[in-house]
Structures
1.
Amino acid sequence: MKHTLSILLQNESGALARVAGLFAARHCNIDALTVAATHDPSVSQLTLVLHGSAAVLEQIVRQTRKLVDVIDVNTLSLVGDDNAPLALATQP
Amino acid sequence: MTTPTQTALAATGTDHHPLAGQPMTGAEVVVQVLADEGCGVLFGYSGGAILPVYDAVFRYNAGHPQADGREPMPLVVPANEQGAGFMAAGYARASGRVGVAIVTSGPGATNMVTPIRDAMADSIPLVAICGQVPTSSLGSDAFQEAPVSNIMGACAKHVFLVTEAETLEATLRTAFEIARSGRPGPVVVDVPKNVQNAALRFDGASRLPIPGYRARLRAAENARLDDEACARFFAALAQAKRPLVYAGGGVVAAGAAPALRAFAEAFGLPVTTTLMGLGGFDTTHPQALHMLGMHGTAYANYAVEDCDFLLALGARFDDRVAGVPDKFAPGATFIAQVDIDPAEVGKVKPADWHHVGPLAAALERLTRYGQARGIRPPLDDWHAHVAALKRDHAMDYDRESPLIQPQAVIEAINRRTRGRAVVSTGVGQHQMWAAQYFDFREPRQWLTSGSMGTMGFGLPAAIGAQFARPDALVLDIDGDASIRMNLGELETVTTYGLPLKVVVLNNVGDGMVRQWQKLYFGHRFAASDKSLHRKDFIKAAEADGFAWARRLEDKAALEATIEDFLAFDGPAFLEVMIDPDAGVYPMVGPGATYAQMITGEFIASRGAVPVEAVEVPSTSMF
């Protein structure tokens, strides 16, 4: 199943590489990734698409939250799950 | 994404640093923050890109002599930067304080990669400061340039590349905060040379804003067990007849050993610890089962098989403990887990009850809750069962052999140190024998590369530990192959006059590799036999200034030699030629379950394990 993650990130030297590196090191393939500035110049937003089981998603979200530069991670599961509500849901 | 817009939080409050407002160079700021953070010793090797900081350390030490004339922040120089990293790690492991290493750019920094990864894997707080080429040369393939933030970013808890000198002070202070908070770990600060030379004004209090990290940390550190969570825990415990505590390195890191002892004694739970958890629960305590896992005691592993309730404390069900997670503790109908890291909860094995928060507070809360309600589970049958396991499946080895058995060496030392020595190790068979046959009365006495399994860790870690605890007996129990990896640090021992004791259990090769080759690779000893190697360890130790350096080959001389060795007032080096065929048992093979544990010839097994049960397909083995 595909999952979309919305990651708020401090706009720091090497921060994007750390997120991408975490996914690579934990053997989690990134299907799509976009990065954009926000109204706050010190914060960037990453939108990241990956596929995997719910357990894979939960573990990679928890690991992403351990990155010091990461301000917040939200998950949005849209594709491949007809029953999923179309809403941003914060992981517990 | 690479525009540094980090702004330091301004110093606030009324408690001004006495040096606030003083002009300082970047290098002086580095040294002042180290002093403020309480660094009693630095480990590092100099080089072009870190020279301003080294000069500032020199001037700081010259300007602040202690009452006894000693330097306030001595800089200990290893043979290789990897040695500095492991010294800082040994210092941190033995003391609980943040270890600090300072190295130059390029090769200095890349030689630090292994200790940084090792510290990350074992959750050890370090701050490593690396020199870097000037910001104007970054990315230009300059002399001694390496992409440290990229390399270390994959290995460390966090890495900072300081591109704006104004953020240097806040960055360093924040590095210490990150290293020691939550689940501890190593933080790398990469400091370009022009930043070290920048003219700055010291503020004495600034930190970087790391809102996400601090918010998550606050949530974890303020988490407390409420009455309902305690009630659910004790309701499950009341159903259990055979409860067991499985305690990991988190008990040591969290300073939770006294709380664990009080909890275990209050409710009568037996305790087994992981390799990293050794010392977190006094191994001589009647309720202690020593170590579990791949080379755990047979009685601890049988207790894991037999338990019906498992409480994991700061332990992460790693593959050397739970090689086959769904067959680990197969009778446990209730698994409870406490950890400071939310990502570890249920990562390997689902938990029926969990708490993310400070371990000591959680255990104290459970103890108070249970005691207030007079809870004392009736566990007499389970205690009798565990006592029988300890009696019937005690650790043992070939005591009749004419060859010196490594276990006998550890026992002879342990009879004299009585569980009070600080012990570091390399990695392999000697590490497991030391884990199995030493007693550990207190936390932070056992310094070993648990997760990374880094050969060469033992000698530099012992050096760092001796600086942390100058009055303690510090032993490096090493192997002939492991000690070779950082043998240059023998000279560091004598240069600094450290009274540490080095034991090399020499089985002429990579013993653990040979053990696996015997079991799984048809006795083909590819690259693990060192009988043609010409190293004379005694001459090497003597050449490096060891006044006491002896080789022990006669079993009859074991006790007297150990006595003499430990009594020597100064650095001492003992090489023991051990039975090269001695194996580490018990053994739960890679990819095997505890039911498939082999106990060897000298430890009673609970039932014959059919050979085919021990055979594990090589595809499921690591």
Note: Residues 60 and 66 of chain A are 10 Å apart (CA to CA).
2.
Amino acid sequence: MTPPGAGAPSAAGVPPAAGTGAAAGAGPGPLERALRARRDAGRKLLVPYVTAGAVDDWVQVVRAVAAAGADAVEVGLPFSDPMIDGPTIQQASLTALRRGTTPQAALAELAGADVGVPLVVMTYYNLVFRAGERRFARTLADSGVAGAIVPDLPLEESAGWREEAGAAGVDTVLLVAPSTPDERARRICEACRGFVYGVGLMGVTGERSELAGTARQVARRLRAVTDLPVCVGVGVTTARQAAEICEDADGVVVGSALVRRLLDGGGPDAAAALVAGFRSAID
Amino acid sequence: MSDASGHGPGSGAAPPGAGRRAGVAVMGEPDARGRFGRFGGRYVPESLVPACAELEAAFRAAWADPAFHAELQGILTSYGGRPTPVTECRRLSAELGVRVLLKREDLAHTGSHKINNVVGQALLARRMGKSRLVAETGAGQHGVATATAAALFGMDCTVYMGEVDVERQALNVFRMELLGAEVRPVASGSRTLKDAVNEALRDWVATVGHTHYCLGSVMGPHPYPWMVRELQRVVGDEAREQCRQLLGGDPDVVVACVGGGSNAAGTFAGFADTSAELVGVEAAGGAAVRRGVPGVLHGMASLLLQDEAGQILEAQSISAGLDYPGIGPEHAHLADVGRARYDTAADDEVLAAFTLLARTEGIICAFESAHAVAWLVREAGRSVPSGSTVLVTLSGRGDKDVAQARELLR
């Protein structure tokens, strides 16, 4: 099996990632190439998040948000103990698990989805570990997934996974928090592929009426240490907040605001409308 | 399990040089990444990595500081009631045909060994300039202990407790409130200890600037498993000296109950380099060593009850304190290298042992502690030969369980 993009030369104009250690030797994969190309063309990046299995037609939701202007779609594989997630995504995860969602089934559904933009899977490390790092990375690649976010796998624990993901052609997106010192942020960015995920606030995922001051701060700090696309997520609730963050960031990740609409019964159309609103606000 | 990468806990065998019996260098410091063999580590969101590093640095500095030890020991003596006695059980010994000694953590202030850990962590929190403690609790013993330390040091305190446990340990909820703590019931997941840990971690991510997470067992991300074991080793260090005075040597067997495993880790630490056999007793419904497989939860790689996809399963036990689908990583390692063995006790055996100890020795112990007693009742004359000398750590007193026992025994 050859993962999409594996072994392909880097897109023209993409600077080599600095200081790549042996454990993270793989160059940028299709996710990073796609996002860099769009960013370099002057476009702000919009990455909506959908919990796999939270609603019956979740794959249609993924397609709908892609068509409504997403540059990549983050798909959450539900875990029983989502410790960095707030009430909305906890509920979506629990609902998905009660509906019998498994990582294998969700990825199989995605494999045939033909979404049109890169897919990024977000899940907790135990699911990766249980499957085996290599097998999980290959399953992602075989399902057409271009990137992975594993929020409870910090830099020091992630070398083995990054190596397997890189070998399979999957970019590992790492997170930088408001509490991360600059020197550490620099090392994280060196190991990171795809885009770097700036955590907008100290706290769990979920909607916030006010934009945290840390959201733009973390974007500015990341801009100073990396050339990777910088997307900020956690606490990004409204289109206006997204536009504000995009004054400093390359893009935003929108999770709970979208998932709540799905849990409230809004289908693919409601999801698409929300994403279209974000799109026009950041353009 | 994990393929070839050599980074996950599923890879590799016991470290070279780790033997199976006494005299082996176990229960020392974990490696630089906080690992005991293939278990442990620091699997936390990036937001918490700096806080874990800060805590590790603070603990290392404090643990090397005689002034810290002096203050800790002073509080544990004048306030905590240490040293706790070792009680020779004449009637129970006669009943079982083995010589039974109890390490009486039930006599420590707040009624369990938990006070040893929380006083140490509260002192550390103060050194780090933190003004608030957050904790998880199952049975409520660690919550009560944390609320106590917070009152003693003038700190704010929030305790997360699963709704199921709030129900079955209502008196401990009131105790915590009486001590000035806020108890927040947790309605997510299985609504027990596992979910209380999730919620405490979520709180800590948002409040880490002024809050210390006072974790109650030898679990969680590095440095907690190591730090909590060191704060609890006073149990084993005292017991070893007391046994030598009473017996002129070490006991043949040392037994303690294991949920996360802090009283067992503290006890074992005092005997790791002796010839005593070390036995940890889990709840039959939460037997992570026997039924668990390697995985990652709550910041650590350890043995966990989980399904094929890696979803965590719910433990089931009469005792809220052992109702946890995992085990501290160092215990998983001790099982790996064979230095300790882990067995289980079923709810009915536990209830019988709880009653037996009350009637033969006049001691009403916690349901958690009754697991260790129940194991000995079952194994005396079997895997524990008649005439053996056995030290059992009685981790806590049973006041909190009396109402539930009354229902169950009716």
Note: Chain A touches chain B through 51 residues (CB under 8 Å).
